[in-house]
Amino acid sequence: MGPGLNGGMAHARPTTLGFLTWRSPVPTGGNVYDDRLTEALLAAGAHLRRHHVQGVWPGESEQHRAEVALVLRSQPVWLVDSIIACAVPDLVAEATDRGQRVTILLHSLLSSELGLSEPDRQRYRALESAALRAASRVVTPSQWAAADLRRRYAITNTMVAHPGVDTAPLTPRSSGGSRLLSLGSLTPTKDQLGFVAALSRLEPLPWSARLVGGDQVRPEYSAALRGSIRRKRLDARITITGPLTGSDLDEVWADTDLLVVTSRSETYAMVAAEALAHGIPAVVSAETGAVEALGEVDGAVPGRAVPAGDTAALTATLRRWLTDPQLRDRWRVAARRRRENLTSWADCAALVLAALSGSAPSGS
């Protein structure tokens, strides 16, 4: 038996793991996943070499093809961010044909984004299918995402590694539950317009909401969102902050009672796990990976899953949260219990290492 990624035989030279990533110009869950996974892999003793590709992916992939091709030749084992891999499937295929091991770390599928033209959607589907089929293994953030790949592309060489979450201070309980948060880039897929539509039906109740996330990713959508808030005369109650990180984001968590995730498509929703790390319940979109992030403890769910795009269902759920102290208490207790069994980054790294070494069976 040959050496593993960390050198399983005495005196064997350990295999160096390459990690090919891309940095979004605005904070994203994918970037956080890549950064924290890198730290955890190094802490686990992996011999890791990370390479950042420049550009705005996948739009500038052609400019950086030569760089990716050269980098992929440099090491035998690679973990590749899906936004890169799914833009250059031929390079993934060439690497695996050479006998290299290329594992794709899936964050999301571009073809599932709302607002795409049909030609773009079909182009992304073709690229994704080719890259995922060529890969040695695909690491997905949830069982839901793995099932989605089987349904879309008949991909079965998957392994699930729930993203980790950092420990965080508990958010103090407020007397009510009026402080609502939506965290994510302002895009049609995240559907903050649906959140605003639900809030507009709750105007007589006490609440305030913050929409935190990149507001220049889809400028036309951000403009439409601001216009909707203005027309509904909710400017004093809904704040669009733009992207926040570090201590600024910590302050937001410390002043939040409920996270609301209205995404139409979501492979996991790291923000839901982050909320639970603070003891904050969440409302998430049903039939998405966000339900897995929400989880449960002994049948107690720290929030609720509502059908994506169903304004009436979201309105009813938020109304219940705002008016029912017993419901708030149940969700808060469940969130604090769920906080104790969230996935750590060390656990996530161990699963990814198993996928890279080929020691874990597909579909696990």
Could you characterize the architecture of this molecule?
Strand 8 (208-212), helix 8 (219-231) and strand 9 form a beta-alpha-beta unit. Helix 1 (29-43) crosses helix 14, helix 4 (89-97) runs parallel beside helix 5 and helix 7 (192-200) runs parallel beside helix 8. Strands 2-1-3-4-5-6 form a six-stranded parallel beta sheet, with helices on both faces. The longest helix is centred in the middle third of the chain and has 17 residues, at 118-134. The two termini are 23 Å apart. The protein has 364 residues and is α/β, with parallel strands linked by helices. Helix content is 41%, strand content 15%. The protein folds into two domains: 17-164 and 344-357, 3-Layer(aba) Sandwich (Rossmann fold), CATH 3.40.50.2000; 179-339, Rossmann fold. The chain is globular, with a radius of gyration of 21 Å.
